[in-house]
């Protein structure tokens, strides 16, 4: 939800001269807000009288004092203007319109009204060249109706995921872990992580004036998404490899996905902590700090994509002649492509093609612009896991008709271990897929 107030109206209401448009002070009051609006952004948009086509930029400083209005109508200091040094912002204008500048961001709303006093520094020379006609201050927050929808859907997904997790565990309890396929083993890990992804402590965001609930939400989501990335690597490699030791099989994949997870956790935690400590904080202040993490993130993400493509190509080249494995490959690939295509389309439609370049930390967070976008993102990943849990669960006939279902995947896609499907169930016949040429073929 967005509302705005004009800077000229603020100056006139406080009997201040319009000549102070380039410096202020601008005493502005927020509209009535509740904790269900989640967060509040104050954004300034300047309008100039420039008539040429020149694009011009100007760095300037912002100093802000914040006071909250208590239920007893008393002003409670939240942030004094002399508590922190002036924050630098960059003004970029084309003709008579300037790009929005985020003045402050409140990550937790404790009071129903706030008073902001904004001072601008460094725009006097800009005023001489390009006269500032007015400054519009926008107040952006979440709609309380959206917050209620988000809470209900999180709760519904959480309960359904818990039920699916229990059901999937019960279907596998009659089998030894050794007989589980690699997909079934990973589902037993991804489903509990999906419970955390749905955030069972989401309500603490509205009950605690702390950065910890938001940080935990970011940790839960990053952990689940990175586990999903690791799952894709292990499945495409594990279908060709029966010996999956920690050092030779899992460690190389952890060395690729681990830095991606660490960068995401570090950046999200650092930003949420500083924004809670100082509402005027912007990730752009730590350009060098975030740039190094951003570079590391994209470096390992590029390695991940390259490695995944190699595993997919090798898996299809070696296993496409085996109907059972070919079906497993096609299924996991189809679902993966659906998830990635929908996720990328949502990202591009929301942020544009330059999202990962200019708004890497500020916008690509766990926030959503509409209820439809939230349900699309959350529903996509939840139903993706539900579908895999249904397909990879052993059928009821497996226990009683092992002889029939062993070589007939139509009854259940995954009913036996990889070794049983190829070599049978005898322990002595279980051998790696890649055998030496001197070994005799088994009958």
From TrEMBL:
It is found in: Membrane. The chain crosses the membrane at residues 152-176, 188-207, 219-239, 251-270, 290-313, 334-353, 373-392. Residues 143-396 form the Wntless-like transmembrane domain. It is a multi-pass membrane protein. Coiled coil: none annotated. Keywords: Membrane, Transmembrane, Transmembrane helix. Residues 24-142 form the TMEM181 GOLD domain. GO terms for cellular component: membrane. One of its GO terms (molecular function) is toxic substance binding. Its main location: membrane. It holds the Pfam family TMEM181_GOLD. It comes from the Eukaryota. The keyword Membrane applies. This is Transmembrane protein 181. It comes from Graphocephala atropunctata. The lineage of its organism: Eukaryota, Metazoa, Ecdysozoa, Arthropoda, Hexapoda.
């Amino acid at each position: 939800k967005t509302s705005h107030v004009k800077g000229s109206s603020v100056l006139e209401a406080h009997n201040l001269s319009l000549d102070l448009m380039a410096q202020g002070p601008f005493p502005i009051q927020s509209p009535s807000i509740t904790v269900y609006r989640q967060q509040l952004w104050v954004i300034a948009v300047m309008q100039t009288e420039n008539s040429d086509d020149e694009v011009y930029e100007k760095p300037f400083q912002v100093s802000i004092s914040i006071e909250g209005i208590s239920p007893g109508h008393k002003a409670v200091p939240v942030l004094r203007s002399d508590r922190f040094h002036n924050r630098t912002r960059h003004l970029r204008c084309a003709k008579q319109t300037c790009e929005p500048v985020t003045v402050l961001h409140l990550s937790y709303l404790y009071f129903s009204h706030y008073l902001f006093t904004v001072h601008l520094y460094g725009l006097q020379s800009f005023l001489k060249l390009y006269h500032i006609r007015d400054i519009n201050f926008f107040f952006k927050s979440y709609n309380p109706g959206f917050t209620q929808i988000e809470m209900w859907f999180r709760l519904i997904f959480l309960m359904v995921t818990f039920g699916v997790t229990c059901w999937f565990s019960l279907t596998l309890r009659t089998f030894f872990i050794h007989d589980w396929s690699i997909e079934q083993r990973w589902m037993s890990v991804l489903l509990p992580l999906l419970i955390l992804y749905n955030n069972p402590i989401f309500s603490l965001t509205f009950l605690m004036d702390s950065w910890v609930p938001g940080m935990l939400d970011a940790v839960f989501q990053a952990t689940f998404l990175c586990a999903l990335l690791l799952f894709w690597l292990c499945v495409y490699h594990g279908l060709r490899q029966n010996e999956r030791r920690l050092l030779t099989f899992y460690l190389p994949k952890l060395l690729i996905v681990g830095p991606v997870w660490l960068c995401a956790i570090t950046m999200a935690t650092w930003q949420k902590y500083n924004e809670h400590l100082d509402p005027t904080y912007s990730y752009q202040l730590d350009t060098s700090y975030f740039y190094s993490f951003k570079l590391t993130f994209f470096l390992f993400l590029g390695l991940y994509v390259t490695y995944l493509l190699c595993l997919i190509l090798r898996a299809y080249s070696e296993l496409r002649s085996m109907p059972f494995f070919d079906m497993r490959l096609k299924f996991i690939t189809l679902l993966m492509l659906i998830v990635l295509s929908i996720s990328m389309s949502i990202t591009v439609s929301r942020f544009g093609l330059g999202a990962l370049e200019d708004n890497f930390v500020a916008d690509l967070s766990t926030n959503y612009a509409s209820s439809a976008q939230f349900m699309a993102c959350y529903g996509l990943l939840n139903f993706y896991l539900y579908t895999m849990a249904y397909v990879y669960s052993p059928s009821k006939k497996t226990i009683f008709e092992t002889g029939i279902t062993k070589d007939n995947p139509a009854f259940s896609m995954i009913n036996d271990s990889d070794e049983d499907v190829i070599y049978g169930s005898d322990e002595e016949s279980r051998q790696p897929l890649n055998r030496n040429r001197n070994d005799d073929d088994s009958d």
